[in-house]
Design brief:
Strand order of the largest sheet: 12-11-8-6-7-14-15-23
Strand content: 15-25%
Shape: globular
Radius of gyration: 24 Å
Largest sheet: 8 strands, mixed
Structural class: alpha/beta
Distance between the termini: 23 Å
Helix content: 25-40%
Bound molecules: adenosine-5'-monophosphate-propyl ester
Number of helices: 21
Length: 656
């Protein structure tokens, strides 16, 4: 199976409209209805969001102004008072949903648990009181380093309830990566677990937290709360570390939600860019609540008989927006699963769908490709007839994988929403509305109402049909990131200065290249910067390079992505060595482990290539384009006249 190429994708003309039955029952029922919403929002975005904010959410106090736009800084629902935990919990308690399942959790191995809205509310209130008892106040930052267990959602909602800012760090990140994020975010408290299940093994989380905090490395952290999940022995530091269950038992369940300003920070989430360390993407409360609510409602088309399952980890934005906040704000039933696709249990996803009668299922192309490889006998042996809608996110989906998903999982009856968005956008930006927009395999189709997406050149001039260019957004939207934590300047530089329209208007540049076809459908082609997409996870080449050069044997490193059938992209590192070090299989293994130690398993290079020198321009810039060609086993293409020393390239070629 190959990755999509521009040519193959542009030849993709198949159109899959939703069935009449699906459209009839959908939230948005026709292309006309979508077009009407889109046009209305385009003509007057503020009026569009104003009306939805009033009708869809609970506010303690209404806003004075819908949008205050001082490019590139936006404020939405100025002076409005709201609490997202209230919108996700309290407001459902006065309805029949009080006893509806809020979270269905399927753990490993074989544990499960269901929390109704009333139960989840109680847990969140108690835990919010635990946080308060440890001195956490409005505006304080709280690190969350958890496995996929309901307590992760409880922790996030409890922070939101009292106005503390959560900073969730994916449990697969290393102690070093965790430490960097805790320092940058000035976390006052860390919430973790003794361990968690990753594939078929228990991995320790608390030991990683201990390592991250070693020798007072993060002076801001005063307390650590530990969920007992896997029950192995862990070190508990007197005075600093506390068991979640011990404090939770004693805590009162009375904790009214704090009225927050719309623009108060809700969370920080770190993501990789093309330069420097990962950035702390800042999201605020009101606009994020509204946008994740509306996108969940219209894209996943949720109603009260749905059992919705998003397979992401809460450590990523997809987990924040579409496992926790969006579904709960809608009063939906959201499934959380601790497991992951793996050869030892090739039916694991399909078992969960059968067991709970999942109706709406949202996963990543990389998972779909892994399941294709495991064989369709596994899904075929389960009852997947409950499914009515499918989704994908994280990377472009190749048409072959799309067709497999459509046929084998969706039984040819379920629309597929291919959703394009980013950590920075907070919510889904380009996607079919499933009852309204016919899909084409590999296309994210059309922008969500209120999103003025376009494809332009560096001067901001719109590209013609199928011409290709940079994907941009031309008007602020409610859940856009507000800044890079502690670095407004980096925010401006990274997202708002690459594309410079002549009229001086600010446009948001996403870092992706895309095309729009003659039907107005968007085809996202992937990153145009030095950001890799490995199994749907974002990785900065520079981060991996910094990890490599921190090893004593490495003099210089250049990292590029190589197309990979399963992962989308694989990390390939070209490395020059210090002094007397010699390249060997041993050293290659050691360097791979070193990257895992510095960042986490998701960054493990698939391949390390030792070389005497790296191809550079006369001004000393590494020519990554050439390395990408070499890594992919292709002929070196394009101009090589700026290369300082051609023999470097020849040697590298010989080595391949
Ligand atoms: O390159 C795009 C790709 O993932 C990037 C965003 O990564 P992250 O912030 O980690 O968020 C992932 C989950 C929202 C984008 O810049 N991407 C995401 N979804 C798609 C996609 N590329 C193509 N099609 C998609 N549906």
């Amino acid at each position: 199976m190959s990755q999509p190429t521009i040519e193959s994708i542009l030849q993709e003309k198949r159109l899959f409209p939703p069935s009449a039955e699906f459209s009839q029952n959908a939230q948005i029922k026709s292309l006309e209805e979508y077009q009407h919403l889109y046009d209305k929002a385009k003509a007057d975005p503020e009026a569009f969001w104003d009306q939805l904010a009033k009708s869809e959410l609970h506010w303690f106090q209404k806003w004075d102004k819908v949008l205050d736009w001082q490019p590139p800084f936006a404020k939405w629902f100025v002076n409005g008072k709201i609490n997202i935990s209230y919108n996700c919990l309290d407001r459902h308690l006065t309805t029949w949903r009080k006893n509806k399942a809020a979270i269905i959790w399927e753990g490993e191995p074989g544990d499960s648990r269901t929390l109704t809205y009333a139960q989840l509310h109680r847990e969140v209130c108690q835990f919010a009181n635990v946080l308060k008892s440890l001195g956490v106040k409005k505006g304080d930052k709280v690190g969350v380093y958890m496995p996929m267990i309901p307590e992760a959602a409880v922790a996030m909602l409890a922070c939101a309830r009292i106005g503390a800012v959560h900073s969730v760090v994916f449990g697969g990140f290393s102690a070093e990566a965790l430490r960097d994020r805790l320092i940058d975010g000035q976390a006052k408290l860390v919430i973790t677990a003794d361990g968690g299940w990753r594939k078929d093994a228990i991995v320790g989380l608390k030991p990683q937290v201990d390592k991250a905090l070693e020798a007072g490395a993060v002076p801001s952290v005063e307390n650590v709360l530990v969920v007992q999940r896997t029950k192995q022995e862990v070190n508990m530091q007197e005075g600093r570390d506390h068991w979640w269950h011990e404090l939770q038992q004693k805590a009162s369940a009375d904790c009214p939600a704090e009225p927050m300003d719309s623009e108060d920070m809700l969370f920080i989430l770190y993501t990789s860019g093309s330069t420097g360390k990962p950035k702390g993407v800042v999201h605020s409360t009101g606009g994020y609540n509204l946008y994740t609510h509306m996108t969940t409602k219209w894209i996943f088309d949720l109603n009260d008989t749905d059992v919705y399952w998003c397979t992401a980890d809460v450590g990523w934005i997809t987990g924040h927006s579409y496992i926790v906040y969006g579904p709960l704000s809608n009063g939906a039933t959201t499934v959380m699963y601790e497991g992951a696709p793996r050869g030892s249990n090739p039916g694991c996803f399909w078992d969960v769908i059968e067991k709970y009668g999942v109706t709406v299922f949202y996963t990543a192309p990389t998972a779909i490709r892994a399941f294709i490889k495991m064989g369709e006998q596994h899904p075929n042996a389960r009852d997947l007839s409950s499914l009515r809608l499918l989704g994908t996110v994280g990377e472009p989906i190749n048409p072959e994988a799309w067709m497999w998903y459509h046929k084998v999982i969706g039984g040819e009856r379920c629309p597929i929403v291919d959703t394009w968005w980013q950590t920075e956008t907070g919510g889904i930006m380009i996607t079919p509305l499933p009852g309204a927009i016919a899909s084409k395999p590999g296309s994210a189709t059309r922008p969500f109402p209120g999103i003025l997406a376009d494809i332009v050149d560096l001067d901001g001039n719109p590209a013609g049909d199928n011409e290709g260019g940079y994907l941009v957004v031309k008007h602020p939207w409610p859940s856009m990131m507000r800044t890079v934590y502690g670095d407004d300047d980096r925010f401006r530089r990274t997202y708002w200065e690459h594309i410079a329209p002549k009229d001086g208007k600010y446009v948001y540049f996403a870092g992706d290249g895309a095309r729009r076809d003659e039907d107005g459908y968007f085809w996202v082609m992937g990153r145009v910067d030095d950001v890799l997409n490995v199994s749907g996870h974002r990785l900065g080449t520079m981060e991996v390079e910094s990890a490599l050069v921190s090893h004593p044997a490495v003099a210089e490193a250049a990292v590029v992505g190589k197309p990979d059938e399963l992962k989308g992209e694989e990390v390939v590192a070209f490395v020059t060595l210090e002094g007397t070090y010699q390249g060997s299989d041993e050293l290659s293994k050691e360097l791979k482990s070193h990257v895992v130690k510095e960042i986490g398993a998701i960054a493990r290079p698939g391949e390390i290539r030792f070389t005497d020198a790296l191809p550079k321009t006369r001004s000393g810039k590494i020519m990554r384009r050439l390395l990408r060609n070499l890594a992919a086993g292709q002929e070196v293409s394009g101009d090589t006249s700026t290369l300082e020393d051609r023999s470097v390239l020849d040697k590298l070629r010989e080595g391949t």
